[in-house]
Amino acid sequence: MPDKSLIVIVGPTAIGKTSLSIHLAKEFNCPIISADSRQFFKEMSIGTAKPSYEEMQGVQHFFIDSHSISDKYNVGKYEVEVIDLLDKLFLTNKTVILVGGSGLYVDAVCKGFDELPEADIDVRKKINLLLEEKGIEALQDLLKELDPDYYAKVDLQNPQRISRALEVCLTTGKPYSNLREGKPKNRNFNIIKIGLNTSREVLYERINERVDSMMKSGLLNEVKALFAHKHLNALQTVGYTELFNYLENKIDLNTAIGSIKQNTRKFAKRQLTWFRKDQEIKWFEPDELIIIQNYLESKLK
Question: Does the pLDDT of residue 123 top 60, yes or no?
Answer without folding.
Answer: yes
